[in-house]
């Protein structure tokens, strides 16, 4: 069985696709329904979602029977919203004993799936390294403070002069853009303007308080996932190699940029490495493996990087429904056949690495971190990560594709299960818990998270000078909790991907 590991940025999900050999029609109505009443095509899609989840899902053993669950009763204002309600319901049955919550519990959206979803096959369009959008991401750092979170080089936003940290004070000449909840009038205006249009005018304010207007049009551009790469000389022979890796695009796109950065680190003789994954929701797992190989000490070559563990049905070759969709060989789901092995890439050899993380750090990013924890000194700086130690492959059903967790990953020390995220400064994840700082650009030594890494390299602790502070958000702006910031960021991410998909569909 050939696997192509892919990650979907929209919901921080890792995907595995198999070589297809069957059509994608819904499967027949299940046993227990009347053959005389097979239902509509939509009914059969709902049946298929339930039955595939019963076969493939990592936690299928907690699901009720078809008769109890009644998949055909789920409806929504649109067909796909009704199907997502079914997926959400299926995701909430298995309880994590460590938290007493469902494995797919998300505090920001209780009752909705944290990982599982269904779509119409377009969510992975940006993984090849070409985006069709404005080329920047927004973030609320307070209720009345909307900022530019990052900008992709060569994108419309980059060409218009937008820079991380700039404050957006008007959108299409409207200054009523304060955060008022995800159902609020202001927020709806912001999301519609940013993600449901092909042209937009922004008034932005620079750190020196000057403002300018920028008109952007969506366009295709090649993504450079390395937003920043630099060597920071600290004196006394200490040098930090700093890299902002923002998306695990496929290796054909990402490798060139990664190799350039790591070659420069080796040439400069860096003594420490800081990998900034604070907004990296994931991407190609093959690229995650490559980044792990760039970082890991050479002595770890040929040792286990991580292992995937599927449910007992798949491991015992009991997958009649999946066999109707894909060509699978016996034993393909055994742990021994689902291991990644370290193969050192490049010549940078260090024993310690710092990862900068936030609640937007997910999936392939977390996989990279977990891969390296048993192999070297790994330090985390920032906020608790998203928490996604599971992955899945796409299951085509009619015009849809279903994604539901089929496997869990564990590193060489059998560590995994970070469903609640990785918390910096905890017993399991050494480092320091600290808030994000959007008011400074990437690589600025005064940026609060990078400053903590510099402090640790210099003096062995994370204490930074009291003079290092975030830029004020103003008296009319209320603070947002970390959960609120993460929830808004996730909603923005979903809208960003939807915009890229919609724009590409319009061009077909």
Per the CATH scheme, the topology name of the domain at 226-307 and 333-388 and 408-459 is 2-enoyl-CoA Hydratase, Chain A, domain 1
Our Rg estimate from Cα atoms comes to 23 Å
Proportion of beta-strand residues: 15-25%
- Based on Cα principal axes, name the global outline: globular
CATH H-level superfamily of the domain at 226-307 and 333-388 and 408-459: 2-enoyl-CoA Hydratase, Chain A, domain 1
What class, by secondary structure content? alpha+beta
Arithmetic mean of pLDDT: 88
CATH class identity of the domain at 226-307 and 333-388 and 408-459:
Alpha Beta
Q: Helical amount among residues, as a percent range?
A: 25-40%
The major beta sheet can be summarized as: 6 strands, mixed
Give the CATH architecture of the domain at 226-307 and 333-388 and 408-459: Alpha-Beta Complex
Distance between the termini: 32 Å
Strand neighbour order, sheet with most strands: 13-14-15-18-19-24
Describe this structure in words.
- The chain starts with a strand and ends with a helix.
- The protein contains twelve helices and 24 strands.
- It has helices spanning 41-56, 66-69, 79-91, 156-159, 185-195, 251-268, 285-295, 312-315, 320-323, 364-372, 448-459, 482-507; strands at 4-8, 13-17, 95-96, 101-102, 117-119, 130-133, 136-142, 145-151, 167-171, 199-205, 211-217, 219-222, 226-235, 238-245, 272-276, 304-310, 339-341, 352-357, 377-382, 390-391, 395-397, 400-403, 407-411, 431-433.
- Helix 10 (364-372) links the parallel strand 18 (352-357) and strand 19 (377-382).
- The strands form seven sheets. A six-stranded mixed β-sheet has the order 13-14-15-18-19-24, sandwiched between helices. Strands 7-8-9-10-11 form a five-stranded antiparallel β-sheet.
- The relative contact order is 0.17.
- 26% of the residues lie in helices and 24% in strands.
- The longest helix has 26 residues, at 482-507.
- The chain is α+β, with helices and mostly antiparallel strands and 508 residues long.
- Among the domains are: 130-222 and 476-507, Roll (Pdz3 Domain), CATH 2.30.42; 226-307 and 333-388 and 408-459, 2-enoyl-CoA Hydratase, Chain A, domain 1 (Alpha-Beta Complex), CATH 3.90.226.10.
